[in-house]
Amino acid sequence: MELGSDIDGVTGATVSSIAFVEAVRKAMNQTAREQMGTIIPRKKSVWSMGRNEIILLSLYLTTAFCILLKLKKARLLLLVLNFLFLGLVMKMPISISNLAALFMGHVPDIKGNLFWWLLIPGTLVLILLLGKNLYCQWVCPFGALQELISRTGGMKVLVPSYIQKQLKAVAKCITWLSLVIALTSSNAANASLEPFAALFSLRGTEIQWYLLSMAIAGSFFIPRFWCRFFCPVGVCFNIFSKTKKCFKKKNIIHPHMKEADHETI
User: Phi then psi for 50, rounded to 5 degrees?
Assistant: First the structure.
């Protein structure tokens, strides 16, 4: 039994789908061994470096290159490419359930799921190295859709600063609630309430369809409506992007501190 061939995966719950397939495979092997006296040889895990992994690496390296050289004009093109590849082709934007699974240690085998490792931990590593949230502004396929809507047919409605603060606080509450649900239920898939599945796989819960309609409608009036005020992934990545800056501040040694150290010696 293989994910993607014998059973369909769920967008935003890749690790849970993999875990489900692995559990069914173990049950089948145990039944065959105990009831039929047959031993099914386990398929050896091999490195899955293929076309998709190469495309993802190319897109990420190009994004990092453009950020370092401050080539802001290339951002829209990269957003469109990531929308087509990560969104429409792979149907695998990063969701809060992916981050919850990583935090809980529920990760798939790196050999057979190299794409997941390049996408989720790889994104976090790049954010930590660059000190910038490159995913939301340059990669996110759902963010790309909202920005395209805003640029082509939307209008810019100014949101008062005090309302922005309140809405951003809502995003933090959603993030906290999602992670609590994932941890208490020991199932990262339960944390996913983003409208990604409904958009890219055309399958989702009732609340996901509602949130998708809200996000798309809001994007006609406020650029990146979902990203700015509701996205839990953006909250997590923004926190990660500040880690490098905080680390640098802690390691700054002021001149008067150096002199004091010499005096004590």
Answer: -130, -155
